[in-house]
Amino acid sequence: MGESSSSTITMADVARLAGVSMATASRALSNASGVAPATRAKVLRVAKEHDYVVSPEASALAGGHTGRIGVVVPHLSRWFFGEMVEAIESVLSDEGLDTLLYVAGDPEDRHRFFMNLPARRKVDAILVVGIPLTAAEHRQLAILGVGVVAGGGQFAAYPYVSIDDEAAAKQAMDHLLFLGHRRIAMIDAIDPNTPEWQFDGRARAYTAGLAHAGIPLDSSLFDRTDWGSDAGAEAMERLLSLPDPPTAVLAHSDEIAFGALRTLRRAGIRVPEQVSVIGIDDHPMAAQLDLTTVHQDVRLQGEMVAKMVVTMLAGETKGEAVVLPTHLVPRGSTAPPNR
Amino acid sequence: MGESSSSTITMADVARLAGVSMATASRALSNASGVAPATRAKVLRVAKEHDYVVSPEASALAGGHTGRIGVVVPHLSRWFFGEMVEAIESVLSDEGLDTLLYVAGDPEDRHRFFMNLPARRKVDAILVVGIPLTAAEHRQLAILGVGVVAGGGQFAAYPYVSIDDEAAAKQAMDHLLFLGHRRIAMIDAIDPNTPEWQFDGRARAYTAGLAHAGIPLDSSLFDRTDWGSDAGAEAMERLLSLPDPPTAVLAHSDEIAFGALRTLRRAGIRVPEQVSVIGIDDHPMAAQLDLTTVHQDVRLQGEMVAKMVVTMLAGETKGEAVVLPTHLVPRGSTAPPNR
DNA sequence: ATGAAAGCGCTAACAC
DNA sequence: GTGTTAGCGCTTTCAT
Q1: A34 pLDDT more than 90
Q2: Do B89 and A103 touch (CB under 8 A)?
Q3: A-B C-beta contacts closer than 8 Å
Q4: How far apart are CA A312 and CA B131, in angstroms?
Q5: What's the CA A66/C1' D13 distance, rounded, in angstroms?
Q6: Considering only CB atoms, which chain B residues are within 8 Å of A77?
Q7: pTM over 0.90
Q8: DSSP code, position A130
Q9: How far apart are CA A5 and CA A284, in angstroms?
Q10: Domains observed in chain A
Q11: Using one digit for the tens of pLDDT, what is the confidence trace for B72-97?
Q12: What is the pLDDT of residue A33?
């Protein structure tokens, strides 16, 4: 009854109670080798009886590692990242590692994160999700002096887990082309000033797909904007106000596609009869909205990238890169063109 | 050029380099009082020059606090929790506190979290989001020996920030009743075996609203299921197969409402002409789907609950509770009944 | 297999 | 205002 006098018990106490030295107690508790089974058992029993857990701070100070992994994401309110972090946390906690979360989405937070490095001396490794790093950021991360693994995007500099963005977008483009579309627009989430040589994979697949089909690129059909459904809605408005609107739209993501669908519905334009729309990601709401899209397994990516850091921590650092497959999910928002 | 020899510099080094004692260096660096401005400046300069940051482990060990807040959520892939955690992390990081994330949604994870208490000795406070605790869990949390603050739900035991669920659902019910509906169904996210005396606020508002309008409760119209749009879709199927289907549906959440809308659309039933649907939360996709709903400010809740722990840590522990207002957002999914 | 002892890097009394 | 001195609770050689 009542809380057991929560007066923190130390390892010294446990050692004494078990009739062994602190060294032995430490070995037993940390599951190290060189302890007689019987001794280990006794120590463990005493520890359990007194509800003892080692002080992570002291352990880290003396031992050199923190047992924490820093996870850096640009957002959490977007489904993709929430799902990813949920999967990562699940694996890490199974491994007895803690997740230290850093949200560094908008430019200001991002700058602060990479300049101040709040994770310094606090983590054993860093997991960067969905943030393609600049050279300067890459240099800053190196200061942390810990391993880095990346996920959910294309990163040459670190071991990573990702889909092939270009391949995914190609699957979407192939679908539209197969249906017979030739006047195809893309709404991309990318800075409008980005030069062609550093287009993201999805944009490259768009231009390549057109080129391959012998369709000249009409720059008015290549709309660059923000991510998010509002941006998608506005982009669709621009596309509709064109003298010769597209018969099909490839959205950089499902969320952008949602916005495009909204604009089309409000304009009274029927999908897919008058305009086809295809997204990428297979967001949970895509099924709801009957949006044709390209599926990627986000949860699996999170699990794999988390396992990758665990492996790295274990010292078996293979500088690997895992690329997960994607596939088309045909639904009701795409059909052959009527023009 | 190259990484500055990352050999970790200690406070002793900084002190020596600045020509002061470690104590003074410590005071200067921790922004404590009792240091001559000039001295402080010098220490700070030396520290910056050598790119020094204190060891959190050592500091925690000696000082007694960790600088970390444990944040416990049931999910992250759902918008509500992602948004909440994003807001919390934002405030905490502004305060120089780190966010230790724990996802304890499904029964198994939840049990493990509360039994093993992985956060023990690792955090200065705990923030529980969206998990109404059982008495046993409450007792377990006490073992942590740190302050607890709750958010996103109704919690009597701790200081908390939340909306008034009953009031929010009442706003929805009032709207439906005002429109003239009398055959109103509710799809609730609650275990079907829950006795009436421990209904959640939203369910209470439903039964109370009916009673107030003199409408007898038809238990076949009160559908209890899981959260999530799939559950909502299935519940709507059940409601449609009733001999006398409802003219309006109150969904426990927007996500459930999304599922209901899907079923209605697939059944070719027009909304709101034949059936009205109203949700609660004002999920970003609600606007997209033109769903009438009750708005709550999730981001603000996250910010406030985070500030509450900061206040608590500062010692000004007011056992307060903040209840944020909600309001109806009329959109196109509700209209007067036609039957 | 076990123990003794030396830190890990810092904070907090307590003196001066 | 600044310095001295104990620890904080553990891990880890190095002995035994």
Answers
A1: no
A2: yes
A3: 140
A4: 34
A5: 21
A6: 79, 82-83, 86
A7: yes
A8: S
A9: 48
A10: 11-63 (1.10.260), 68-163+298-326 (3.40.50.2300), 165-295 (3.40.50.2300)
A11: 999 999 999 999 999 999 999 999 99
A12: 86
